[in-house]
Design brief:
Two copies of one chain form a homodimer. The first copy, chain A, is α/β, with parallel strands linked by helices. Chain A is built from twelve helices and twelve strands. The termini of chain A are far apart. At the A-B interface, helix 4, helix 5, strand 2, helix 6 and helix 10 of A face helix 4, helix 5, strand 2, helix 6 and helix 10 of B. Chain B binds a DNA duplex through helix 2 and helix 4.
DNA sequence: AACGTGAATGTTAACGCTAACATTGCGTAC
DNA sequence: GTACGCAATGTTAGCGTTAACATTCACGTT
C-alpha cells in the first residue's frame, strides 16, 4: 500500500480510502490511485484488514452428507448468495452427525473467526447442540427444527407431503402407504405429519410408515415388503432415491407402476423424470433454501447479534407417470 | 494473549510458545499456560497470526457443477483431507465455465491469500487459463488435462472405458456404440479414446459416437436414435445419468435391456444398482481423487512453490444386469 | 571463585491495514 | 481583508501475533 501511495505521491491513507470507497476523495485522485494499484498489481492484505476491523468477512457452513443432491444444491445456493453479499464461505463437512462432532465443527469455525454459521444438519438433536450458540454468534439452522434465538430455514415438508398424498387419493387410491426417512430427521417427520393428516382428514386407513435410511437399498427393502402384501394401492416414498429402490423391487416382483400401484417420491432429483416409470414427486428448491439462509444470516451479522427469524420455502408437486392412470 | 500471560505471570511470548508447541518451555509452565487458556476461554486470533506469518492456512477450491455426484464427492474428499492436513478450505463454485469466470474465481481466491488452489473444472480450455498460474501459486488441476508446472489428478478414464468396452464385446456384441459427453470435457474425450482403442484392437466396427450433455435428457435422446436403428447390440454410455435416460428411451421403444441391447454406464452413482435394469458401470473413487489432490497440493505448499506432479486414480468395473445375458 | 553454557523466559519490533484525529487550502460571508 | 467552514488529504497509533534478539539463572568446569 505504501508503494502505491509513493507512486501517486499521496499518503497510504488516501489509498485506503479509495479501496474502501470513502466519499471524501477527489474523483481525479481516485482514478490516479486506481491506476497505480493496477499498474503495480497491488493486492490488499485481507489478514491485516481483518485484524484491524475485527471482521473476517467469512461465514461458516457445517454440512452433513454433502454428496447428496439436496445438501449439495443447498451448499451451492449458499456459496453463490454469500459471494454476492461480499462474504467468503468456509465449509466444514461432517462424517457423522453427533453432538460431539457438531461441537467440534463449531469450534473449528470459531477458530477461523467466522462472523456467522449455517448448519445443514437435519437431525432433531442438532437443535439442542446449537442452542448453546444462541446469543453468541449469528447462526441459521437449515431443516434442523427451531432453535430459540437463531434463524431457521426450512422447506415446507408438511405441505409437500399433504399435496402429494391428496394427489394419490384423488387418483383413486383407498389409502396411501408411506416409506419414511429415519425418525430422527426433521424432514422425515414433517413428511410423515403431512401424510398422516391428509389420510385422517379423508377418513382413510393410516398404516404404520415403513422406515428407510434415504438410500435406494432401504427403499428396495420397503418395496419388497409392500409388494408381498398385495393390497397396496399407492405409496408415498419420502425421497426419490428410496422411491427408485422401491420401483426396482416392484418391478422384480411383477408389480406394475402405475398399473397396480401408484408411487410418488420427494425431492425431484434431476433423474426422477427418467425413472421407470417417470416419478411423480415434490420439488424442493434447494438453491432457494441456500439463498434464504444467507439472507437471514447476513441480517443477523449486520445487526451484530443473533436474531430469531424463520423462513419457509414453498414446494411444488410434479406429477408424472408413476402416479397417473 | 496478554490476559493469559498476566494470569500466569509470564510474558505473552511464552504463551505464544505454548500455542505453537515450541520445545523450549518447561512442561510445568506449559501446563499452567494451558490451564489459563482454558480458564479464560482464550482463542488465538487467526488474522493476527496470518498477518505476521504470511500464511493463511487456507486452500482454495474452484469447482463447477458442484451439485453433481462426482464433483460433490470430490469436494467432500478434499475438505476432509485438507482439514487433516491443517488447512481450511474456501470454495468458489462457478455457474459457467469460461476463461473469464475461471480467472475471476482465481482473483477472488487470490484476494483471500489462499496458499494453493485446486481446480475442478474439467474443460479442456481450463488448462490454458491455469497455465498463467504455473510458477506463481501452488495448484492442482482435477480432470483438467495436464498443465505444465502444476499438479494434476485424474481418474484413469481411458482404462475404465477400455475395460467396459471389452466387457461388452466379451458378452458377445459385434461392436459397441458410444454415447459420449460434451467434446470439450477432458473426461469425455478420455472415455472416447479408450472405447475406440478397444474396438480397433478387436477389429470391430467403430461408429461415430453420439454426443450428449451428461444430462438424463440427452441420454434419452441418444437412446431414441439408437432404438430407431434396430441394429444396435451394445451401448457404452459416458455417464450413469445419461445411461438412465437411454434406458428410459429403450424401455419406451420396447427395446429390452439386456435382452436386445447391452448397456453400460460410467461413474457408479449410488442409484445405478437400482436402475431398471441395474446398471453395469465403472466406479470412480471420487473421494480418493479429493484426497490425492490435497496430497499433491500440500506437497507444493510445503515446498513453497508449484511443482509438476501427476496422480492417476484407478477405476473398477462393476458388472450388473444391464450388460449380462 | 570465576566463568562458560545452554535452557527458559523476556523485550522489542514489525506484519499491513483502518480509525481517529490533525492539517491544509480554498471558497465564501461579512 | 479576515474569519469561517468544509472538502481533501496527512499523521499517528494500535489491532494480536510471531521473529529475532536479549536477558536471566542454574549448573558444571576449571
Amino acid at each position: 500500500m505504501a508503494d502505491v501511495a509513493r507512486e501517486v505521491g499521496l499518503s497510504h491513507q488516501t489509498v485506503s480510502r479509495v479501496l474502501n470507497d470513502h466519499p471524501l476523495v477527489r474523483p481525479e485522485t481516485r482514478e490516479r490511485v486506481r491506476k497505480a494499484i493496477e499498474d503495480l498489481g497491488y493486492r490488499p492484505n485481507s489478514a491485516a484488514r481483518a485484524l484491524v476491523t475485527r471482521r473476517s468477512q467469512t461465514l461458516g457452513v457445517i454440512t452433513f452428507n454433502s454428496t447428496l443432491y439436496g445438501p449439495a444444491s443447498t451448499l451451492f445456493g449458499i456459496e453463490q448468495a454469500a459471494r454476492d453479499a461480499g462474504f467468503v464461505v468456509s465449509i466444514d463437512s461432517l462424517t457423522a452427525l453427533t453432538a460431539t462432532s457438531v461441537r467440534a465443527a463449531l469450534d473449528r469455525l470459531a477458530k477461523q473467526a467466522v462472523e456467522g454459521i449455517i448448519v445443514i444438519a437435519p437431525l432433531s438433536g442438532t437443535a439442542e447442540v446449537l442452542s448453546a450458540l444462541a446469543g453468541q454468534l449469528p447462526a441459521v439452522v437449515v431443516e434442523g427444527g427451531a432453535v430459540p434465538g437463531l434463524g431457521a430455514v426450512s422447506v415446507d415438508q408438511e405441505a409437500g407431503a399433504r399435496r402429494v398424498t391428496r394427489h394419490l387419493l384423488d387418483q383413486g387410491a383407498a389409502t396411501v402407504w408411506h416409506v419414511a426417512g429415519p425418525g430422527d430427521w426433521v424432514e422425515a417427520e414433517g413428511r410423515v405429519l403431512g401424510w398422516r393428516r391428509v389420510l385422517r382428514e379423508a377418513g382413510a386407513a393410516v398404516h404404520r410408515p415403513l422406515r428407510g435410511t434415504w438410500s435406494p437399498s432401504s427403499g428396495y427393502q420397503a418395496g419388497r415388503r409392500l409388494a408381498d402384501r398385495g393390497d397396496v394401492e399407492a405409496v408415498f416414498v419420502a425421497n426419490d432415491q428410496m422411491a427408485l429402490g422401491l420401483l426396482r423391487a416392484f418391478h422384480e416382483a411383477g408389480v406394475r407402476v402405475p398399473g397396480d400401484v401408484l408411487v410418488a417420491g420427494f425431492d425431484d432429483v434431476p433423474e426422477a423424470a427418467y425413472f421407470t416409470p417417470p416419478l411423480t414427486t415434490v420439488r424442493q428448491d434447494f438453491t432457494a433454501v441456500g439463498r434464504r439462509s444467507i439472507e437471514l444470516l447476513v441480517e443477523q451479522v449486520a445487526a451484530g447479534r443473533p436474531l430469531e427469524r424463520r423462513a419457509v420455502v414453498p414446494v411444488e408437486l410434479v406429477v408424472r407417470q408413476s402416479s397417473t392412470r
